[in-house]
Amino acid sequence: MNAVTPSGGEQSLGPTARRMILGSQLRRMREDAGITRQEAGYSIRGSESKISRLELGRVGFKERDVADLLTMYGMTDPAERQQFLDMVKESNEPGWWRRYGDLMPSWFNDLVGLEEAAARIQVWEPLYVTGLLQTEDYARAIMSHGRKDMVNEQIDRRVALRMRRQKMLSRPDAPRLWLVLDESVLHRPIGDREVLKGQIDYLLEMIQQPNISVQILPFDRSGYSADSAFSLLRFAEEELPNIAYTEYLTGAHYIDKRDEIERYSRALDMLAVDAETPDRSRQMLMKRRAEI
């Protein structure tokens, strides 16, 4: 019984993605051995729900638990076991975002890790420029609700976190980012005129990168395919499922059911058809920039 190591792009995999890959391998080994989640949970002094969380990569792994499960599932080869347990250690290493842990709600941690591992990130944004393409001033205006007197050290650190997230777009193995942006975003007065102008300038700069595309959805075609923002993350590693991410006021949903992913994918396809082409969208950005 062989463990499958992460394929292509392993260097960029963060702890979140590694946990998901290892979890899927544990699930496959358990099913091949004909063992139920309840039986597996009992063997590590846990519950069926604990095994479910482990297999989904939602929690960190304890080496002792994984070693016991490998024995139960029939993985006895010392070299294979050590390789698997080494990967468990790597999955428990903190990501760069750990130093911002006091600022990040628990539901946001996984998004940062998944972004780092994604091969393609598709985003629909009807209200703001997506965080991955925001300027510092634009992000600060959003986080302070447009009130400069509310800017403090915590907000500055949150802005720094957002800027750090963007660094992955300049990696040699950077993910492909495709953004569909509602035209209203170009007119929404975030900050002041200079802040909005600077944000549009930044978009024009970033779309020159080969891995970044922006399409603008005009006013007269807005809102029909999806009425709220979401992201769709796709991965090169076959062990990782495509994931849709949506936020609400106090949390977020991570969606990986195949039929639901298909609906999000179709919505993005429809938005892309309705939106202007990347070249025409660039012209719209330049025109709006001149109007401000």
Automatic annotation (TrEMBL):
Q: What is this protein called?
A: Transcriptional regulator
List the Pfam families.
Answer: DUF5753, HTH_31
> Where is the secretion signal located?
none
Entry-linked InterPro entries: Cro/C1-type_HTH, DUF5753, Lambda_DNA-bd_dom_sf
Q: Name the domain of life.
A: Bacteria
Q: Which residues form the DUF5753 domain?
A: 108-286
